Amino acid sequence: MAQNQSEIRYLTPPTVEVKRKKYCRFKKNKIKYVDYKDPIFLKKFLNEQGKILPRRITGTSLKFQRKVAQSVKRARHIALLPYVTDLMK
Length: 89
Hints:
By secondary structure, the protein is mainly α. The chain has a domain at 29-89: CATH 4.10.640.10. Helix content is 31%, strand content 0%. The chain is built from four helices and no strands. It has helices spanning 25-28, 39-42, 55-58, 62-77.
């Protein structure tokens, strides 16, 4: 009944997650204006339900997180993005 540790086999090797440094994609690409008329770009900052992702997940700086939030709200207002959805991506 008792098995040795050497007898346990995995289908895939256990992975170790490596923490990558978060960066602001706006500062890296020198983007100064977040366009609310580009819903494809704004979808990168939304989850599957259509909620705006927080800074700690996206790595966006505070200045650009505010601009992203404002742009998403404007795009929702003119019906470029949905307010709520089941599966968006």
